[in-house]
Design brief:
The complex is a heterodimer of chains A (392) and B (701). By secondary structure, chain A is mainly alpha-helical. Chain A has 15 helices and three strands. Chain A has helices spanning 20-26, 29-50, 58-84, 87-92, 94-108, 132-149, 160-179, 183-198, 204-223, 229-239, 250-262, 273-276, 288-320, 325-349, 367-386, and strands at 113-116, 119-125, 128-130. In chain B, helix 15 crosses helix 18 (433-440), helix 17 packs across helix 22 and helix 19 (462-482) crosses helix 21. The chains are: A mainly alpha (392), B alpha+beta (701). Chains A and B meet through helix 11, helix 12, helix 13 and helix 14 of A and helix 1 and helix 2 of B.
């Protein structure tokens, strides 16, 4: 599969033979430490967010914490396993991962799928809930990196036909996710595509065209009332969160109250009255940032933003270190995903972006989401341990 | 396909590097913006959101205080609280059930024998678009589903708590009026708070439960804040479903104070009975449509009894009055039982007013111990005025003028004092001595009794006449011009007369005429007084000239008896009459019941045991039968009580009112069939004891 690589730099590939110890030394420990820290803070927040109020069963909350830790544990193992595998080997499986993803996305629309929070996004098998759209993000990154990052002979960057093929590849999962419907994941898939396309070196016309199409599409959706009424409400709420605090604006208003009331140093872990009164919905998943805001205050919540920023920065730094377009685009895709999803999630908790059902990467409760995040991290670490790029 | 550039190193890498650096910069900017927003929310805006957070999870529950009782002077309950079994539901617990409480409510409906639909309606919170029945209170209060539940039913609910989650049965205090119709208007009643009352009373607004009731009439209204006590305030920590998680603070309610009154329920009942019997006796000769009897303690203005007939049971207001009963209460056929004739009714006082006219004459130059002509009729200002029954008595003393109620003596006083003031066209400020004296006795303005809606009555004089003329001139002048075409159709003569009258009123209606001054002197014409005003005036004569503000309330006692606050008598003023005149009047009034107009009624009354001093009155009013008055006090030699009786359209004072007053005295002093209601004729000097547990130890003598 590598035979078309005519680059003089192809000799770099020889470095992949370096010892495991060398790989480990080259691992981005700051990136790993940041993800571990986010996971640890997330565990505490999940624990606090699921603590029962008076009259509940305290063991429920231990259950949730233990499940969350189990998810993290399994996900770390998978992450390290993926990191250990050569990314070129992984690349070979990209079409398979993509195909499995598409099948899973189709299955959720069949009676096998389950509706949770108004979205048919889940498959329940033997008591295990599984969210294919999370894995679709990883699958899409793999396939797009292959398509955009493997120029044909004599070409150094993707051409129009590659872009058109990519569009087809993106359109299928996008359509399936929109059928669930899941606006948040739809936007994440789009941002992954746009991010990777922009940095792939594809013709500028296409990059500009896609960005313009995205903007026109957003305007058209708004203009022609293509959104569900509740989605319009959510955006309207963003403009004026106080407009209807018990209705559409409830989530947003309660999130602001929880975060704002935390103040500089917070109420202390497990001490948040808003959190334990369950005023913010979905506070252990999509709105977990509000728990940090209330209980850990500015100190803790800003720490999460900084850690998220560090993760994305380090992933992009790994991308900078890549000589080759494929691993670089892999990292770019992951960075676009984490960056966009983190921004949307935190922005939503801070009342500056509309409410969409997206978890906060590495922090929110949710097995599939954590697994997908760690898979992506594994891909990045795999690149990180093998490739060597721009020196600076 | 165009051939791609051969140099493979440049575009991809350079673009990639620049793009990645730009992407890093973008991430830095966006995430810094998030941190900035976080700072804004958590540092400068923190206090704002903390307040919102507190409002979010703190729910304040107002816990009403037990309302104080109203007691008579011996400690017998006039208004108290009964406990009643009430079944109520926890609003949030019912709402949180998977079926919305459907099963519990339908089970409960079977036990209570109430349709499920009604229970569902009662569970709704009242709002602008919710029809009654609905719950007007807070969802944090138990929602009342059934009142007055039978003991066994309540027990069944309490015992099978598992079958009725969220449902409780408990005892609740309900206002009770154990005396039924007795003293109904004076005690008053409770009604749900209106928005106006909330706006006006801050203490009500800050501690308002939504199901509060306030006193709307009588003592319940006047002493509402004292009886009400202070509601407690419980702050509950709640979650997003409104489920109570803990009690954050609990300020206990302070029960309302008990109101001890000067009233004696025995005398009250006796007065009402005597009044009812007297009115029945006056019929069918007279209409005797309504009546009042007032018993005052002349030494302090205390209201010992105050009867007004027809009366009603304030208990009808409990639990919401229905429209039919309400309309009936206000209807004329039912005799408007809500109206207290003693406090709100005004009538011409007739001859009972002569004490004021005589005082006015004597204090303004007429000799006390002289004789005055009492002819059968007098002609004054070209008009003839007759004595009652037209009998003349020659030259008599003022005492005899009072005893025999000689009108012509007073006609002369009225006319001469009118002339002295300048007659129709006074120079400068007329003295208006007659009216001034009447005001000195407390007529023409409210007595200041601690009961609501008191009337001031009316003491007419030149100024009143002018004001009245100004107010009515427009209408009268219009009628003087255009006549009464509608009346002219059927009765042209009457219409012409009315037109002439309107013309006079229009042109010279401001004039205080001789006939008005003459009628004023015998308590007729435009003079109007309330029975309470007259009682207060006679109490002043009895006690030597001190005018007290009548007081129903004697003391406020804390619910646990720990504090007693006596309500001191309030002196309104001294009657502007010399002691000699007062003594003279006292002597005259004492003889009325032996040899005067009250002689018939008090013929065989044991005056040697308790001498009664009094004055009859028979007041005429246009298109009405004569109203019967008797104003009195006793014992004449050491006055304790003033008793005033009025029977509207009940005949002469001597034939109807005086016998009623006599029965009241007999009851007080035990001179008739029963034993004395106030032993020794003395009111209770002590207060009843309120024990620490809130129970009351009535006085026994």
């Amino acid at each position: 599969m590598d035979t078309h690589m005519g680059s003089p730099r192809s000799g770099n590939l020889g470095r992949t033979a370096a010892t495991a110890a060398g790989n480990a030394r080259r691992l981005d420990w700051l990136l790993i430490a940041s993800v571990v820290a986010l996971g640890a803070i997330g565990s505490l927040l999940v624990w606090s967010a699921t603590l029962p109020g008076d009259g509940g069963d305290p063991s429920d909350s231990i259950d949730a914490l233990l499940r969350h830790l189990a998810h993290l544990g399994v996900a770390w193992v998978v992450c390290l396993a993926v990191a250990a595998v050569d990314y070129r080997t992984v690349r070979a499986y990209a079409p398979i991962v993509y195909a499995v993803t598409i099948i899973a996305l189709v299955l959720v629309l069949t009676p096998l799928g389950a509706v949770i929070n108004g979205s048919r996004g889940w498959i329940v098998i033997a008591g295990f809930q599984f969210q294919p759209s999370e894995l679709a993000k990883v699958g899409l990154i793999l396939v797009l990196a292959t398509l955009l990052g493997e120029p044909r002979d004599g070409e150094t960057r993707p051409m129009t036909r590659d872009v058109l093929f990519c569009l087809l590849v993106v359109a299928i999962p996008l359509a399936l996710v929109m059928l669930q419907p899941d606006l948040g994941t739809t936007l994440v898939l789009c941002s992954i595509f746009l991010g990777m396309l922009t940095l792939s070196g594809a013709p500028v016309v296409w990059v500009g065209g896609m960005l313009a199409a995205g903007a026109v599409g957003a305007i058209a959706v708004w203009w022609f009332d293509l959104l569900e009424p509740y989605q319009v409400d959510r955006i309207a709420t963003l403009m004026d969160p106080a407009a209807d605090p018990q209705g559409a604006g409830y989530n947003s208003a309660q999130a602001l109250i929880a975060v704002g009331s935390g103040g500089f140093d917070g109420t202390g872990l497990f001490q948040g009255e808003q959190t334990h009164g369950r005023f913010v919905p979905e506070q252990h998943t999509d709105f977990i940032f509000t728990v940090a805001g209330e209980e850990l205050g500015f100190v803790g919540a800003a720490m999460i933003i900084v850690l998220m920023g560090v993760v994305i920065w380090r992933v992009l730094r790994v991308a900078l270190g890549c000589d080759l377009p494929y691993p670089r685009l892999l990292c770019v895709g992951v960075a676009a995903w984490f960056g966009f999803q983190g921004l949307i999630n935190i922005g939503m908790c801070l009342g500056v972006l509309p409410v969409t059902g997206l978890p906060l990467p590495f922090v929110s409760y949710g097995g599939t989401a954590i697994m997908a995040n760690m898979l992506a991290l594994g891909l990045v670490l795999g690149v990180n341990s093998r490739d060597r790029g721009f020196e600076f | 396909m165009r051939k791609p550039p051969v140099d493979p190193t440049v575009p991809g890498r350079r673009l990639g590097r620049a793009g990645l650096l730009l992407a890093q910069f973008l991430v830095l900017v966006l995430f810094a913006a998030l941190v900035g927003r976080l700072w804004y929310l958590q540092v400068p805006m923190a206090e704002h959101y903390r307040e919102l957070a507190v409002a979010n999870h703190h729910q304040q529950l107002v816990v009403p205080a037990t309302r104080g009782q109203i007691l008579d002077s011996a400690g017998r309950p006039l208004v108290n609280n009964r406990t009643e079994l009430v079944v109520s539901a926890d609003y949030h617990e019912i709402q949180a059930m998977e079926d919305g409480g459907e099963k519990v409510l339908s089970d409960l409906g079977e036990v209570l024998d109430v349709p499920l639909e009604e229970l569902r309606q009662r569970m709704r919170l009242c709002g602008p678009e919710v029809e009654r029945p609905c719950w007007p209170g807070s969802p944090y209060q138990p929602v009342t589903l059934a009142e007055g539940v039978e003991g066994p039913v309540a027990l069944q609910i309490m015992e099978s708590a598992d079958d009725f989650p969220g449902i409780t049965a408990q005892a609740q205090a309900v206002r009770e009026y154990p005396q039924g119709e007795h003293a109904g208007q004076m005690l008053g009643y409770l009604q749900p708070v209106t928005q106006e009352e909330l706006d006006a009373r801050e203490e009500l607004r800050t501690r308002f439960t939504g199901i509060d009731q306030v006193g709307r009439d009588g003592l319940e209204a006047v002493y509402d804040s004292e009886l009400r006590g202070t509601a407690g305030l419980r702050t509950l920590g709640v979650n997003n479903h409104g489920e109570v998680m803990d009690v954050i603070s609990d300020e206990l309610p302070v029960a309302g104070r008990h109101l001890v009154t000067h009233m004696d329920i025995g005398v009250q009942k006796a007065a009402e009975k005597a009044l009812a019997e007297g009115m029945a006796a006056a019929r069918p000769k007279y209409r005797a449509d309504s009546g009042a009897a007032v018993v005052l303690d002349v030494t302090n203005g205390g209201v010992v009894a105050m009867a007004s007939l027809p009366t009603y049971d304030p208990g009808i207001w409990q639990g919401g009055i229905d429209q039919k009963t309400f309309d009936e209460m206000l209807s004329e056929e039912a005799g408007e039982p809500l109206l207290s004739r003693a406090v709100q009714g005004t009538y011409p006082p007739g001859s009972t007013f002569k004490v004021s006219s005589m005082s006015a004459a004597v204090e303004n130059g007429y000799a006390l111990r002289s004789t005055y002509a009492c002819p059968g009729s007098v002609t004054l200002a070209g008009q003839s005025y007759e004595n009652y029954a037209g009998a003349g008595q020659g030259s008599i003393t003022l005492k005899q003028a009072i005893i025999a109620s000689c009108n012509t003596v007073f006609y002369n006083f009225g006319y001469q004092m009118w002339l002295k003031d300048g007659g129709l066209h006074p120079d400068g400020d007329p003295a208006e001595d007659m009216a001034e004296m009447a005001r000195g006795y407390g007529f023409g303005s409210p007595t200041g009794v601690d009961l609501p809606y008191e009337t001031g009555g009316r003491i007419p004089d030149r100024e009143w006449k002018r004001t009245f003329w100004e107010e009515t001139r427009e209408v009268n002048c219009d009628r003087a011009e255009n006549g009464y075409p509608d009346i002219a159709e059927t009765n042209p003569a009457h219409a012409a007369y009315l037109k002439q009258l309107a013309h006079e009123h229009c042109v010279e209606g401001f004039e205080w005429r001789a006939n008005e001054a003459i009628n004023f002197a015998i308590g007729q014409g435009d003079v109007l007084v309330s029975p309470l005003q007259l009682a207060s005036a006679y109490a002043a004569i009895a006690n030597g000239g001190t005018l007290y503000e009548p007081r129903v309330a004697k003391a406020m006692v804390a619910a646990d008896g720990s504090e007693v606050e006596p309500i001191e008598p309030t002196i309104k003023g001294e009657v502007p009459v010399s002691d000699e005149t007062i003594r003279y009047l006292q002597e005259a009034l004492t003889e009325v019941t032996t040899s005067g107009t009250g002689g018939g009624a008090f013929g065989d009354f044991p005056q040697d045991q308790v001498a009664v001093a009094g004055k009859t009155g028979s007041a005429d009013a246009e298109q009405r039968q004569v109203s019967s008055w008797f104003a009195s006090y006793a014992p004449a030699d050491d006055p304790q009580y003033a008793v005033v009786v009025l029977v509207s359209q009940g005949g002469t004072g001597g034939e109807t009112a005086a016998p009623i007053a006599r029965k009241i005295y007999e009851a007080i002093y035990g001179l008739g069939d029963g034993k004395e209601l106030l032993p020794g004729g003395e009111p209770y000097s002590d207060l009843p004891t309120v024990r620490t547990d809130g129970s009351i130890d009535p006085l026994e003598r």
